[in-house]
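Collaborator request, handled under Task 6.
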Amino acid sequence: MVLSAGKDRTMLLASMIGNALTRLGVVAMLLLIACRGREPARGEGVGGGLERDAAILAARTLGLAYLRSEQLAQAETAFRKIVALAPDQALGYANLGLVQLRQGRYDEAEREIRRAAALDTASDDIALTLAKVYELTGRTAQARSEVDRVLRRSPGELRALYQLVELDPASRETYLGRIVERAPGNVAARLDLVEVLLARGGGGGGGGDAAAAQLEALERQLPELPREAHRFFEQALTLARAGRAAAAATPAATFHRFMETTAAYQASLQKLRGASGALPGYPILTFNPVITPPAQDARAIAAAIRFSDVTTTAGLADVPPLPDTASDAALATGDYDGDGSEDVFVAGRLFHNELARATETTARAGIRLRDRAVAAAFGDYDNDGRLDLFVATANGGRLFRNAGDSSFTDVTAAAGLGTAPPATTALFVDLDHDGDLDLFLATPAGNRVYRNVRNGQFQEMAGPMGLGGGGVGGTRDAAFGDFDGDGHVDLVVVGEDGSLTLFRNRGQGRFEDATAASGLAQAGTPGRAAAVAVGDYDNDGFLDLFVAAPGGTAPVLYRNRGDGTFEPDRRSGALEALRSLAARAAVFFDFDNDGFLDLAVVGAPTRTGGGGGARGVYLFRNDQTGRFLDRSGILPKDLHTGRRVVAVDYDRDGDLDLLVIGADGRPRLLLNDGGNANQYVQVQLAALGTGSGKNNRFGIGSTLELRAGQLYEARVVTGRVTHFGLGQRLKADVLRARWPNGVAQTVYYPGTDEDILEQQILKGSCPFLYAWDGAAFRFVTDVMWRSALGMPLGIMAGGTDIASAPPHASREYMRIPGSALALKNGRYVLQLTEELWETAYLDQAQLLAVDHPDSVDVYVDEGFLPPAPGPAALRLYPVSHPRPPIAATDEHGTDWLAALRARDDRYVAPLTLTHYQGLATLHDLILDFGELSGLDSVYLLLAGWIYPTDASINIALAQSGKPGVIFPYLEVKDPQGRWRRVADVPFPSGKNKTVIVDLSGKFLSADHRVRIRTNMEIYWDQAFVAAAGSPSASSITTLDPLTADLHYRGFSRLYRKGGRYGPEWAAYEDLSRQSPWEPIVGRFTRYGDVLPLVRAPDDMYVIMAPGDETTLTFDASAAPPLPPGWTRDFLLYTDAWLKDSDRNTAMGGTVAPLPFHGMSRYPYGSDEAYPTDAAHTRYLETYDTRRVGRYRPLAERSQ
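Structure tokens returned to the collaborator:
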């Protein structure tokens, strides 16, 4: 625990010291109980050894409390006691040395810390503290040696890298770069790197553009910038982009100073310097594995833990009791000011937690309530990086928006929540997976679902979404999680009648009652349920349920069978004690950090005698086999009732504490004393704030999976921080986050406090095309862009209703320059790969050899104009004399002529991005080609690429009612000098594409300038005009495939071609065999020869899964020899469909239903069907036999 200053610090410390001293006797007794029946270790007396271990653990707690309050003399006494009792333990020596270091007693500190290092050679904390001793005593080389040793075993250790930043100023850029690569969300490191880069650039080192890239990354990830800092940020970014590094340095430094005062900056700095901040060294919290068996044993550690009531000393005791008629009191925790500590809203009052001391800030924060608060939830509903607050009152609800300055604004009416009924439970969760948090309320009037429509407003949609049920007489409790492993958030609801209902998410914001089908029919019976908790208590990767009973009946653990169905688990006889409790709330949490979820249940006792006594709060420990043991005895004895319970690391010491609301509506803060004897990992997700829009800001609803050796854990993200216990394992091996939009991110060897910043990657786009160029296979472009089965286009369709993409196959021609395709053993060889999260259905492929004079270039239009693509007609555009523009500017007057003169990966960029991937602010490209009146017909050719939106973003845009995608359009000047819209402009169908616009007859005056306007994220690389040439001066030969082979290949490394504004390009030879995507369920085409499937468009096609590759060869001898002075380019023709697996793509998670050319919509209804004749039936039975199943958690993959 970190303590506050002054009188409050003294009071809280006194409470902790008293608790530690009391434990000297209590721990010994608990250890005796835990170890009863165990044979003593060699040389261990049953009494003395156990008492010694109890004394060690108590002295540790006492010493750390003194150390964190900077009462160094008392801390020294406690740690000397540990040294005397446990001379084989590094903890005592290390912390004793740390005390002496902070007292300036460097020689003594070095001696003790070196002793600790000899006992625990694997401890990074000890090694870094020793390095600090060397640094402070002027021995830089030795300090550097210690830090290097840490980095050899822990390459991503942020504190070590930051220590090198200070030890080696000449290499600051290198080490800061490594920190930013390891922790891209660290604001302090990135700002330091900006200043270093600008300093290099100011000295002629060219760091301006690199600094601009770092500032752009900050803009994407930070919440709204402080108002006074925004001007300096914009100045620094503009100057850095212009290459004026020296001029950018001053506003960048000013911006840095503003940021230093923010909670986000301070929290990131703490990750670099450690919890002690500017104080030198790192306290050691845990014992190394040589400690004697009783204290090392997991059961003994659990038994030694105690929960202590510190409500008064923590500043939470002044909440007034509720009136007798009250039935509920609100309780919610969340870090609303971003300082890293969980704040508390309880019974209508807001408390700011600073160093484990609560200060009421209700009035100052602008929280004004006329009625009693009965439920509450923190959540970032507007995705600005700050937690907002919803409060359900006895007469409705209030929504308070976080203003970013530790105050809130009541936006209830503007948000459309003025008619929200009183609620007993409030949950913020993204139910429709569109990237923002919706609001679920359990109310006496039934379920209410307020769908977030992204313009600061909510719409009640429980009925249309299929969530209108949930019990007779209303609902009282609810929880969420992905129970069937399909990636969609499901809901479980407890009704006022005591019934349980499971609502399964079917995608696209639709739910169905799956209670009976899930094996929960008994729980669905009235009178069976009072509260519900969700968690993977048996560590198999699937979320289980605990259903608490109203009293008089036994609660039930429901174990998930792994497919979203449940079976009662009655192995835990200790839960029978809850028959005497009328339960009100329950929570799974790992109180002893052993990696297995324990259980807390609160309620009102139904009798005062018998086995239950008068206890109202129960604690059950998971014995690591999925059985629960009653450990309520380690709680305070006067917990007679409980209404609500929350598990949270209130004092930030690495173990979970409990907040309980009693019958009187007042809080009880129970600090966990000893849970951090085991190791832990705390994870915080952070979605991008700009240029994404695919996930809610803190990843609520994500699934986190962690593996440490043989230990596996899964958690559903319900708040800002998710906690994992590790037992005595020093580190986790792998951490995997499955974001709500389905994208997975993996972190190897995560740190104790691990931040995962959302990666900006395309999960769906198109299959990749590679060609043999004579030396290697190289990426050419992406294909099949004209098909988007099941994708909601939203307002892209031209209106305000959510429309779907047309079902037509993608019939398109894509240009392959002759230089990109060479002969390989007399054949042309192409590779079509599926590397994104999508399913490809390839029905036909042809290669067209286009022969023409070498004085002419030949193009086809590779653009796209929605909504209905239709079949592509082959038209060649020969160009012999391209005319580049004589001037090219954007809406700001910036000169882009140099970037557009050649196809050289220099793009018109950057664009000003919005919240959503694929959308920028409205931007212009104004091109002047000089006098064009002498040409009979003229065409504008534009080369570039597009970063697209996706299905979920389209849904969000359609809901918001705001202007969405504005397709490119062409304007020319009229005689009065005004811009007039005269034509639509296709947008590039993916990467490295050319679009063609006929300018003939479009000009309205002698001014031949054109303006292209859009808000799409399109990056132009080249522009020119050309007169229409004659396509007769060319020859086309169509080649059918000679062979076609389907096989598994894997996934190419992606990189940005041409810098950060260029498209994602694929390196064919740099391959990973492991899929980054969740499986798409269904039957794919078996591997091997698939030539019969790609020769004709007959609805018998190659079905490709992520990781698949189809190798196509074509007989080059079928093309005629080239005449002298001629050259050959190529076109690839494909007839195919594509379906991505976005959460909001209809049927995106499955191969079925199979598309066919005659369908009128997708997915089609019962009035249409895939062909069932003999040929198609034989095709299905012969080719489509490769079955792919559901997602397998990391727990299963090791088996």
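The cover message to the collaborator said: "The longest strand covers residues 838-853. The radius of gyration is 33 Å. Please let us know whether this matches your experimental observations."
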